Structure prediction request, 220 residues.
Amino acid sequence: MAAFEVIDDEGVRFVKVTLNDETVHAESGALCYFYGDIEIEAKVPSIGRVVRNLLAEQSVVRPSYSGTGTLYLESSAGGFQVFEMDGNAWILEPGVYWASEEDVTLKFFRERVMTSLLTGEGVVLLRTKVSGKGKIVLKTNGPVEVVELKDQRLATDGNYVLARTEGIAYRSKRSARTFIGSVLNSEYRLRVYEGTGRILLSSYPYWRQLLSTGKMPKRA
Prediction:
């Protein structure tokens, strides 16, 4: 299996990938440099896939890197989370996917139309859905917490959730019972996640990420 290592150096983090006659996929533009016998392949997508990727705010092309050698991906003032897929399907937020092993399958998941409208994200809201077995790397703003839900609910005032297992439903709701109450508490709508499964949550950034952006990563 390909080896993914998150390296912290000079205040930034980056991912080192070691290949031994293996293949990995990475986000478009993620490559920094590599050495060894590695071939890059970028397949031409269909028109339908181009449209779906654009709607999902994802890269149209995600190149593959095959062979034996060492691959270094671009650095970030934020962080990266490596975890092992166990066969469960995960739904990722836009901009979270960074790299994965060959056996991890990337598809699309469509949220409910009403959820899309209430969150202000248009009529069609697509997410990247990953499934299969193997390692995957997610790009984060800060440390990641794994939250286990058992027929429970988690609500956030902002886009702090990076990914969720398929058994977790997502919707938007008023923060208070009444419209006036929701307006008065300055937190009009909440993002609500319900069901049984796991959630990857990043509720605060690394300090260098905060300095580089000048604000907390919060989107109502």
Remarks:
- The first helix runs from residue 47 to 55.
- Residues 3-213 form a domain with the Double-stranded beta-helix fold (CATH 3.60.160.10).
